[in-house]
Give the backbone structure.
Amino acid sequence: MNTPDPTDAEPQPAATPAMRTRPLVESPALAAKAVQFLSEGPSGFRMSQDEAQRVVAYMRWVSYAPQSFLYREGDSTRTSYMLMVLEGDVSVDTAASGRADRVAISVLGPGALIGEMALLDGAPRSTSCTAITPVQAAGMSQGGLAALADEHPAVAFKLMTFMARSTANRLRALGEQLHMYDQVIADLHQEIDQLRAAKEGRY
Amino acid sequence: MNTPDPTDAEPQPAATPAMRTRPLVESPALAAKAVQFLSEGPSGFRMSQDEAQRVVAYMRWVSYAPQSFLYREGDSTRTSYMLMVLEGDVSVDTAASGRADRVAISVLGPGALIGEMALLDGAPRSTSCTAITPVQAAGMSQGGLAALADEHPAVAFKLMTFMARSTANRLRALGEQLHMYDQVIADLHQEIDQLRAAKEGRY
C-alpha cells in the first residue's frame, strides 16, 4: 500500500497545552514570577502587585520540552490563548521568501508575552515559536480574559494595556529594522551602479 | 542684526490642539462617526454602541488645516494623547537614513487611530503625521483615558482592546513589508553576483 501516512509529513508538535495545563497558582514560585513581570514596566497604567495576583488567578501553567513548538506559523486553530514566558528561552522564527531555511527573528526570555496578537484578532500565527530550553509559561485563554473582564474589569484594563504595550514595543523595534533594511538596499543599489559603471567604462 | 529668527528654521506646526479643542459631543455628526468606528471591527471584545458613546463623552474634537502636523517625528512633548481620524486623510512619513527627503509610509483615513503607541509608553513619536486635506479628529488624552478607566473600567477595557488591535494590525503589515524587503535584498545580491561574474569571466 502506497498511501502515505499523513503524520509522516512533518514533525508533529508536542501535545497541545490543553492536555497538560494546571492552574498557575499550583506553583507558587512561578506564580510569583508572573506577578513580578506583570507589575514591572513603565508607570502610567502599571499594574499593582494585588492586581497582578488577580490576573494570575486566571492563568494556566504550561510546560514545553526543548524543541517543541509553542506556536507554528500559519496555524489558525491555536489562536485562542497567549503565553507569558516565566522560565527558559523561546526562539521566534519565520519562513523567508525564496529560501528553504527559516529566518530567526529573536529569542525571547522570561517576561516576554507571546501570541497576544492572535488572541486579539484571531488571525493565524504570524511566526513560529520553539522552546530552546525547557520552558515554563503562563497561559491566558480568550475565555479567561473574558472572565477577568467580567469579574474585574479594572484589572482586565491593566492587562490589556500591558498587552498593547508589548505589541507597541515590537512595532517600534520592527520599524527600526525596516530603517536598517532601507539603508542596506540603498548601499546595494550603489554597489550595482559602481559595478555597472566599471563594466561600461573600463573595458 | 544677523541673529536668525528661530521660527524661520522650518515650517511651524499649526497651533497645538490644546488651543482649539472642544468636546466631541458638540458635533453630533462627528460624534456619531466616532461611535460607528469604535463599534465596528471583528467580534470578540467589540464595543457596543452604548459603550462607544461612553468613550466619545471623554473625547475632544480637534481640527487640522491641510499641511499642518498632527504629530512630528521625534517629538517627545506631545505624547499624551491619541487621535482617531473622523474626516479627511493623513499622510504618515518618516526620515530615511541616507536621504534628504522623507519616506511616505501610508495614508490613513477615517477610522484610523494615530498616536496610541506614544500614549501607551510615552516614547517620542516614531513618525510624522500631516493633514493632506482638512482633517477632523477625535482626541483622547492620557488623563481622559485614566478617568474613563476609573469611572467605566469595562468600557476602558474595550477601548484598550481596540487600541491593541490597531497596533497589532500595523505590526502584521510591517512584518509583511519586512518579508518583501528581504526578497528585494536577496534579488540585489544575486544581481551583484552576476555583475561580478560577468566582470571577471568575460573580459
